[in-house]
Specification:
- The protein is an all-alpha fold.
- 71% of the residues lie in helices and 0% in strands.
- The protein has one domain: Up-down Bundle (Four Helix Bundle (Hemerythrin (Met), subunit A)), CATH 1.20.120.
- The chain contains six helices and no strands.
- Helix 4 packs antiparallel against helix 5.
- The longest helix is centred in the middle third of the chain and has 28 residues.
- The chain binds fe (ii) ion (2 copies).
- One fe (ii) ion binds next to helix 4 and helix 6.
- Belongs to the hemerythrin family.
């Protein structure tokens, strides 16, 4: 449970429509735990997308965004611990990328918390123009780089 949301429910909702589809060739970092976390991250993003495109409620969108923030913090902490455990040489720049994303996502959450009508903000545009691209780009260009340093499983 994250932010009152059941992950199973989120995954179910994504069957309706996906803005990103899990593709092992494209996204796998060859670590089953991290891959599972990335799958969940993608399902949260898809859930938000479905909520916005299916004209869900503002309360639901707020809940999903809170879940996204909490899940992202947990995921980044997992990755950072992993990178430190293998003395990953690009740890610092990777951590900066994580920190910048958390700052931006927290800023978005605060903006939305202060807004009565969050569906009046073009959240779908934020999702399509920033969140989706950041996630895909980060996994492919940064997370997959530490993959080469992981011991074979
Ligand atoms: Fe990362
Ligand atoms: Fe990641």
């Amino acid at each position: 449970m994250f932010g009152g949301l059941c992950m199973k429910g989120l995954v179910k909702e994504t069957i309706a429509m996906s803005i990103i589809k899990w593709d092992p060739d494209m996204f796998s970092v060859k670590d089953p735990n991290i891959d599972d976390q990335h799958k969940t991250w993608i399902s949260i993003l898809n859930s938000l997308y479905n909520n916005l495109t299916a004209k869900g409620t503002a309360a639901q969108s707020r809940k999903i965004l809170n879940a996204m923030l909490e899940y992202t913090q947990m995921h980044f902490a997992t990755e950072e611990k992993l990178m430190l455990s293998i003395d990953y040489p690009k740890y610092k720049e990777h951590k900066v990328s994580h920190d910048r994303f958390i700052d931006k996502l927290t800023g978005l959450k605060h903006d939305l918390d202060a807004e009565d009508d969050i569906l009046g903000i073009d959240l779908q545009h934020v999702l399509e123009s920033w969140l989706k691209h950041w996630l895909v780009d980060h996994i492919i260009n940064m997370d997959k780089q530490y993959s080469a340093y992981l011991p074979a499983k």
